[in-house]
Amino acid sequence: MYKDIATPIRTKEILNKYGFSFKKSLGQNFLIDPNILRNIVSHANLTENSGAIEVGPGIGALTEHLARGAKKVVSFEIDQRLLPVLEDTLSPYKNVKIVHSDILKADVEKVIADEMPGIDDIMVVANLPYYVTTPILMKLLNDRLPIRGFVVMMQKEVADRITAKPGTKEYGSLSIAIQYYVTAEIAMIVPKTVFMPQPNVDSAVIRLIKHDKPPVEVIDEDFLFQVTRASFVQRRKTILNNLQAGLQDGKKHKEQIIDALEKCEIEPTRRGETLSIQEFGKLADALYPYFCKRQ
Predict the structure, then answer these.
(1) How many Å is the maximal CA-CA distance in the chain?
(2) How far is CA 194 from CA 35, 56, 143, 269, in A?
(3) What single DSSP character describes residue 41?
(4) Mean pLDDT for the chain overall
(5) What's residue 295's pLDDT?
(6) SS3 state at 6
(7) Within the chain, where are the H helices?
(8) 2-38 tens-digit pLDDT
(9) Which of 61, 146, 245, 253 is most buried by its number of CB atoms within 10 A?
């Protein structure tokens, strides 16, 4: 059995060997607890026929645990300095492919087709860079990839917002945007002490499993997300005031917004945080003729 990469001693050895210094701009915080990594992988329910996509492998700590449990691992690394490190640390694992690319610019669907032919159970499993967590998740969701879901680590505060329910202070447009595509739950809390260097906050691992179909059917998905973003422009304001301020030409269409709210049986005095995704879906469809079909 190979020595785990993710121990404080081994991590320091690898960093010293390559003279590696952390780049704060890339959000580099490496896990140094193998038990945490095993738990993360266990939440993905991988089998010997599964594929795993990773973002930001660092020195390969999570990657090797994925390689032990999956048929193929494809990992996207933006930092060129880490390529020789990964070639070294992951040399025992022949089922790993490192792609030197910014995940936000990569054609992930093509990479899956090229690197995982015949694999129909694929999970994204990653310790996401904190500074681009939301853009990465939204890109991978919007790309409609042939995947089962995600098990990803991020700042606990962001995880709370993603998994939030209506009526809570964390609930917002991000909760709705993510939960439109997936069921979302916090799988585990990860203390800041198990990272090198230590971040300032604790982290959480969330598990996102794709819906067979969205929880609400709408005329236009993009417009649904426009409406939800507008509804949270200022959290303390009413849904009516926020829609006027947040939608293009909203102030000119106050009567139409009131009409749409009445059709959906939504009180104009309610706040966005009290509306369910189903209510937002109905509201977006009711507003659509006024904001998307004007000549």
Answers:
(1) 69
(2) 10, 17, 32, 46
(3) H
(4) 94
(5) 36
(6) coil
(7) 8-18, 34-42, 61-69, 83-89, 108-115, 133-142, 156-162, 173-179, 221-231, 239-246, 254-263, 277-291
(8) 679 999 999 999 999 999 888 776 667 899 999 999 9
(9) 61
Buried b (16+ CB within 10 A) or exposed e, 247-285: beebeebeebbeebbeebebeeeebbbebebebbbbbbb
Q: At what angle do helices 254-263 and 239-246 cross, to 10 degrees?
A: 130
CB contact set of 94 (below 8 Å; sequence gap of 6+): none
3-state secondary structure of 8: helix
Collapsed DSSP state (helix, strand, coil) of residue 124: strand
Render pLDDT for 203-231 as a digit per residue (tens, 0 to 9): 999 999 999 999 999 999 999 999 999 99
Provide the residue type at 197 as one letter: P
Q: Identify residue 200 by its one-letter amino acid code.
A: N
Q: Which residue has the tokens 């973003």?
A: 229
Distance of CA 233 to the CA centre of its chain: 22
pLDDT digits (tens, 9 = 90+) for 238-279: 999 999 999 998 899 999 999 999 999 999 999 999 999 999
User: Which pair of structure tokens corresponds to residue 8?
Assistant: 């404080």
- Supply the Cα-derived Rg of the chain in whole angstroms: 22
Give the C-alpha separation, 30 to 216, whole Å: 39
- Alpha-carbon distance of 257 to 287, in angstroms, equals 7
Strand-pairing partners, residue 152, are 126, 206
Q: Report how far residue 278's alpha carbon sits from residue 218's, in angstroms, rounded to the nearest whole number.
A: 10
Name 110's Cβ contacts closer than 8 Å, sequence gap at least 6: none
